[in-house]
Amino acid sequence: MKSTHNHNQFYAKAKYYDIAFNFKKVSEENQTLIDVFKKYNQFEPRSFIDIAAGPATNAVEMAQRGLKTYALDYSKEMVEYGLKTASLENVEIEFLQADMKNFELSQKVDLAAIFMDSTSYLITNDDVIAHLQSVARNLTDQGLYVLEMSHPREVFSIGKSSSTEWDCEQDDIKVSVHWGAESDFFDPITQTTNVTAKIKYESLMESGEIIDQSLQRCFTFQEIDALVKASGCFEMIDVLGSLKPGIKFSNEKASWRMIPVLRKRRIS
Predict the structure, then answer these.
(1) What pTM was estimated for this model as a whole?
(2) What is the C-alpha to C-alpha distance for residues 3 and 12, in angstroms, rounded to an integer?
(3) Residue 157 belongs to a domain
(4) In total, how many domains does the chain have?
(5) Residue 78: what are its φ and ψ, rounded to 5°?
(6) What is the predicted pLDDT for the residue at 5?
(7) Phi/psi at 59 (nearest 5 deg)?
(8) What is the mean pLDDT of the chain?
């Protein structure tokens, strides 16, 4: 399976990726999702899918809560790693290696989410609409879809990908990540950047470095609102500014994300 728009080599290092992003507050994120679902449905979700799941940390934690849980990712290495993690945690998830623009679950789910701006790999408007329609097909009638996206202020920066780097260490494994480079080109017409992703790893068994590039797209609020309406299958019922509880989408500093909450349109 070959993806046109993903950092395939970067994501193939699933264990090192998991260590590099272990700062995620997974339980807090999932509780926010459940609380949002309860707010609009007056009952807790019974099933969940983590889209572009990576190592499936959110999926595994949802399964630990007792939800019927699915995960989806394009990387076979991530699928293998996530299934192994679920087994070690004594929970069961159904993990699909599939394109998020076209997939089918064995059963429809109440709640879907995509984390960490993975929507940025939906490069064209057609990609976004195909993705939304695919998610909607796999949701129950009361289903919600929550998208963690970059804040639109990123679109109106100086036009270059922000350079972000950090180091992590776990179980005698050292990982360094550098996301974005000063030389990465931003195209203001397509709102895409050819983003350089670098992961450097060192363990007792091996060491190395992967440098990978892929297009990623940024979105404004107005265009994501228009794309949701154009999809014909969702309505936007809320927008959060963080997966921390109580932070609304705004221009305030605490609102560092754009997180649309979409409800599946009911066919009358």
Answers:
(1) 0.93
(2) 12
(3) no
(4) 2
(5) -65, -40
(6) 53
(7) -65, -45
(8) 91
